[in-house]
User: Which sequence fits this backbone?
């Protein structure tokens, strides 16, 4: 728990320091004489840069912020649930009140790192539709809260853990803050890395500093062959689509920017009432009192 607390502190500090950074776009110099449409090489390089930024932003947000926050919140809720909850079994088949290495690693990876990688990819795709400046990270975090938190995790009302741990208002408050902070961390780290990658010079120290944040995220991809296939498919689609001039220009137009922002607002408005109902359900949950032996049976 102490190590996780230190990681979270580092993540919060970095998020606060980098939250004002703006995403820096990049135009690779490929020597193409045709300025009306990017060459396949330029499109591929831009795409792979976006993948690198998504990996770094998502992985380190999950490793430094979301993973530690999720584990510490679960520990807090177990402690505040009362003596009657100790020893009961959670949805993940973990024992409340027992701090296990396997449970901590599992929650850290599946509740922090992997969702972070997904969020990093989503951010690189939708970043143009988000507000600029510091409000962009907060907005991205609020979108996580409204769209994903109550339908996937961690505030899914069908989760039976809310019948055991609590109180409900504390669960909602802590997990909602974690969701918002998660979005802010993804945006802050991704934007900061977009400034450093690729390095402005070809010197070895600059290349090393730019590559170091990528090492662990790339290692995470090695066991996930389907993720590599998904990235390769995206590369093919991006390069192919970039050669269709009308499509490439349409995607970069102000109309596409407006449509994207309107779509985000529309999705949020449609899903907001359901999210409010789900949050109320978690807050209003009555925790049954049962003995640990009965719960395990």
Assistant:
């Amino acid at each position: 728990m102490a190590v996780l607390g230190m990681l979270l502190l580092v993540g919060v500090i970095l998020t606060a320091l980098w939250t004002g950074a703006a995403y820096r776009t990049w135009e690779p110099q490929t020597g193409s004489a045709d300025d009306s449409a990017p060459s396949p090489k330029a499109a591929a390089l831009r795409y792979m840069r976006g993948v690198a930024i998504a990996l770094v932003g998502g992985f380190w947000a999950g490793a430094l912020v979301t993973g530690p926050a999720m584990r510490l919140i679960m520990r807090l809720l177990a402690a505040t649930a009362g003596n009657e909850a100790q020893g009961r079994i959670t949805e993940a088949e973990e024992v409340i009140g027992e701090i296990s290495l396997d449970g901590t690693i599992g929650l850290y990876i599946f509740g922090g790192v992997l969702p972070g990688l997904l969020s990093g990819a989503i951010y690189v795709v939708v970043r143009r539709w988000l507000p600029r400046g510091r409000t962009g990270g907060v907005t991205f975090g609020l979108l996580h809260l409204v769209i994903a938190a109550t339908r996937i995790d961690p505030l899914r009302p069908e989760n039976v853990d809310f019948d055991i741990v609590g109180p409900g208002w504390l669960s909602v408050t802590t997990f909602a803050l974690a969701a918002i902070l998660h979005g802010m961390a993804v945006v802050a780290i991704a934007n900061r890395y977009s400034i450093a990658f690729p390095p402005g010079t070809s010197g070895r120290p600059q290349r090393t500093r730019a590559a170091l944040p990528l090492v662990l995220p790339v290692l995470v991809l090695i066991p996930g062959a389907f993720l590599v296939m998904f990235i390769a498919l995206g590369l093919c689609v991006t390069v192919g689509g970039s050669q269709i001039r009308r499509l490439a220009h349409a995607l970069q137009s102000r109309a596409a920017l407006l449509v994207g922002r309107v779509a985000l607002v529309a999705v949020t408005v449609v899903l907001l009432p359901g999210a409010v109902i789900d949050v109320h359900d978690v807050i209003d949950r009555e925790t049954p009192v049962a003995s640990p032996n009965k719960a395990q049976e």
Observations:
- The mean pLDDT is 85.
- Residues 72 and 186 are 19 Å apart (CA to CA).
- The chain has one domain: 38-199+210-296.
- Residues 38-199+210-296 form one domain.
